[in-house]
Amino acid sequence: MRCNVYKFFDVYYVMCQLYRAIQWLCLYSTGDESWPFGCSLRFVCGEQFGPHGSVSVDMLQPGEMTDVSIEMTSPSQTGIHQGQWRMCTAAGLYFGGKLSLKS
């Protein structure tokens, strides 16, 4: 099975020290096949910025968009921090590029 490539709009966030927020992301399916049931956006490396390493994502048809929220807290150390997330099927297969969140 070939999963669609996905595209994120430019999503970079700047968070103050120990700032808690719900970050909303807009995901868009650019492929010609539906995303399979049970997909999630998963943390893959860097700073996780919160308690959840995975967020469920709706099944999307080609050309559809959906909003996803991630509960995040900025790190206590000053400096630039970055975490990367990717789309993943229920079977654990990653698809599409990495989404970078920065603080």
Summarize the structure in words.
This protein is mainly beta and 103 residues long. 0% of the residues lie in helices and 47% in strands. The chain contains no helices and seven strands. It has strands spanning 6-8, 20-29, 40-46, 54-56, 65-73, 82-88, 94-102. The protein starts with 5 loop residues before the first strand and ends with a strand.
What's the helix and strand layout?
Layout: E1 6-8, E2 20-29, E3 40-46, E4 54-56, E5 65-73, E6 82-88, E7 94-102
Antiparallel strand pairs: 1-2, 2-5, 3-4, 3-6, 6-7
Shape: elongated
CATH topology name, in short, is Immunoglobulin-like
Within the largest sheet, what's the order of strands?
4-3-6-7
* Integer-rounded radius of gyration: 14 Å
Number of strands: 7
- The mean pLDDT is 78
- Provide the CATH superfamily: Immunoglobulins
Q: What is the CATH top level name?
A: Mainly Beta
User: What fraction, in percent, of the residue positions are helical?
Assistant: under 10%
